[in-house]
Amino acid sequence: xxxxxxxxxxxxxxxxxxxxxxxxxxxxxxxxxxxxxxxxxxxxxxxxxxxxxxxxxxxxxxxxxxxxxxxxxxxxxxxxxxxxxxxxxxxxxxxxxxxxxxxxxxxxxxxxxxxxxxxxxxxxxxxxxxxxxxxxxxxxxxxxxxxxxxxxxxxxxxxxxxxxxxxxxxxxxxxxxxxxxxxxxxxxxxxxxxxxxxxxxxxxxxxxxxxxxxxxxxxxxxxxxxxxxxxxxxxxxxxxxxxxxxxxxxxxxxxxxxxxxxxxxxxxxxxxxxxxxxxxxxxxxxxxxxxxxxxxxxxxxxxxxxxxxxxxxxxxxxxxxxxxxxxxxxxxxxxxxxxxxxxxxxxxxxxxxxxxxxxxxxxxxxxxxxxxxxxxxxxxxxxxxxxxxxxxxxxxxxxxxxxxxxxxxxxxxxxxxxxxxxxxxxxxxxxxxxxxxxxxxxxxxxxxxxxxxxxxxxxxxxxxxxxxxxxx
Length: 472
Known about the structure:
472 residues, disordered N terminus
């Protein structure tokens, strides 16, 4: 894949190079944000996804989604400034407004914020499942692998919510760098543990049935179950690469600390390439070895579905890593929501004491901190709302698949390609215009299939589920 040439940018009034600290390694911080955003609950479902699709389609899907995400993220990194004035765009919606405008801006806003809200709900579900898995693994160790050891998830969601309420008082991305680096380390930790356990299971003589085409119709699933499960699997894989929604926010938040040379878009391309390359390596390894270890019976979450029982303490460590990672990832995805609402409130009521910030106070790990009543009330209410919704709809694979399907096409594919065509003035029906639009159409079809499969799975789960009664 050839990297597209970037358009010439007009210097903007807010682009003061003297304000840039030029701290070394800032693109590494951006990579950490990306890895934190990408490697999340999605990696836990990849062995199940490959089990549905099989070795051929499963691995092709992983590489395809990785390549598309990388390519469109490179395009998106060139769109962080207004094409006319060169002014910075601080969020995805602003980028679309500057480059396309009109109804596209509203469509983008709906797609982005539905995805961001949905992702934070999904992380609330996943963290609670991992907390419950820690308690269950001790029970299985003491009472035997055939024991029920069922645990209600609601109290764990509340614990997660309390942690997020505290962390949500951190104003912005720059002050979350340490948390993103920690979360990225945690993602490596539980991925390596999952890989190690899968390898040990295969080497130890476990040779479950696998197939080039995945689960077998008439043996593992019915014909329609095969269709819906494969569609849902595509949604799960799409979700596992969902970070385009926060790429512009990450780039904007790091802009003042990036050196003036190379330009910030080139630094973000470097960070994106590093982040997605590392992520894809782990995804292929985790998905393939998880499928090799469990075969067609791969659980929806390969570290909490108890395909592994021993060593229980290692499984507990892996789940603790997942929890810490999701604590950080939740913040990466909710910060754009927080900032959008707070910026609007401040613009509407600039002199109101409710929206004003206090004088800065120096805090360890957080740097300068300013208290805001608006921030306290709004962010607390948001976290409580996501936790309550997670209690009502705690469906891991179905929710992940639906989120991936809904967000992948518009945010990862459609808008970056449309903006690139607009900025580069690519003439209609030339070869480049044709293949870019073919990519858009192919990804739309995949997203519709994934959405259909995920909705079918959620509908099936709802038929037997009672709200606020989630059990692991």
